[in-house]
Write a structure and sequence with these properties.
Number of strands: 14
Oligomer: single chain
Number of helices: 10
Helix content: 25-40%
Length: about 350
């Protein structure tokens, strides 16, 4: 995939929203409502979202997983990631993964599962997905359904939306000829507004219809958030979308949106952060959106700039000690999210 070159400097007015390409700045602080916080992601971003939810359920009780599988699926092995966790050959062992998840929570490697008692999980995947097989995504749904059967977790809401005909992409409201394909920038013109569905499932029914986004999309310095100075294998610049009311000081929610492999800004420019559809719904719900960005590397081997869901950043990649999860916690803390100790 051809990498996007240096972004132009200046300000552009696009569809009513201000998209800033000025120098990356530190993250600003907001009045954030800890009861309205969620993670969402596509493909490797979906695996990253479930890792954040299980590692820090007290911070991220709500998650939307698009074309991803169950937590802990790869078990730190790239070959398992490529086979069982993408092709479903063999299908993920959900019972074993649930057992391992409970053990990790009990040991403190991840957060207490009781924090998911009132959480919401929305799982979306297409019947035409040839990259992450439907059986893998269904295993993700079965994983959460099994957790819901655990003592004290009956209030966990699990919505499995797996009967829509689209390929390995994030469906958007516009229509076109790429819904059944998996091609860059992996935004399928399917006539289905996945971003709107994510907001509805995670934050409740919309108070009114979404119009064009009118907030500010700005760049921020990701290097400033390195946990203990450790390399998290992220790009130097990330993106933040701020709805007008949030910028004006209103108490707002927070969504961390993880892109998929080959969908980072170096690969697709601002396509994901501008065109996925999340920003216009953020205005409706008063939700700030954090768009962290990975970077490609060959040592460790991650040429497609995936989020770490198999262990390239270390064996503790999907726990509270993982460098990418700790980076995310640093980021949301910098945005003003109260962190319980």
């Amino acid at each position: 995939m051809r990498l996007i070159g240096t972004l132009c400097m200046g300000l552009m007015l696009v569809a009513g929203a201000v998209y800033a390409d000025d120098a990356a700045q530190p993250l600003p602080k907001f009045k954030l409502d800890a009861s309205r916080v969620a993670v969402a992601g596509l493909s490797s971003g979906a695996y990253m979202a479930t890792q954040m939810q299980i590692a820090y359920p007290e911070l991220f009780p709500n998650a939307a997983l698009i074309a991803g599988g169950p937590y802990g699926c790869a078990e730190g092995k790239l070959q398992t990631a490529l086979s069982a966790c993408m092709k479903g050959q063999p299908a993920p062992d959900v019972a074993a993964l649930v057992k391992a998840t409970k053990q990790r929570a009990a040991s403190g490697e991840t957060g207490p599962l009781k924090e998911l008692a009132h959480g919401r999980v929305y799982l979306l995947h297409g019947t035409q997905d040839a990259v992450v097989a439907p059986v893998v995504a269904e295993a993700g749904a079965h994983f959460y359904e099994a957790l819901r059967n655990e003592s004290g977790l009956s209030g966990l809401q699990v919505d499995d939306d797996g009967q829509r005909a689209f390929a390995h992409n994030l469906p958007i409201a516009a229509t076109g000829d790429d819904c059944g394909k998996s091609v860059s920038p992996y935004l399928g013109h399917c006539g289905f507004d996945a971003a709107g569905a994510v907001f509805t499932h995670l934050f409740g029914h919309a108070p009114h219809a979404a119009a064009e986004a009118r907030g500010n999309l700005q760049r921020f310095d990701q290097d400033a958030l390195k946990p203990g100075g450790a390399d998290a294998w992220l790009a130097s610049t990330g993106y933040l979308y701020v709805p007008p009311d949030c910028a004006a000081g209103k108490r707002c929610g927070l969504l961390v949106a993880f892109h998929g492999c080959k969908q980072n800004a170096d690969a697709v420019g601002q396509a994901f952060v501008k065109d996925a559809g999340f920003n216009r719904w953020a205005d409706v719900y008063d939700v700030v959106i954090l768009y962290p960005q990975t970077r490609a590397s060959f040592a460790p081997l991650n040429p497609q700039a995936c989020w770490d869901w198999w262990g390239y950043s270390g064996s503790n990649y999907d726990t509270r000690q993982g460098v990418q999860p700790r980076w995310v916690v640093n980021a949301v803390k910098s945005l003003g999210l109260p962190i319980r100790h």
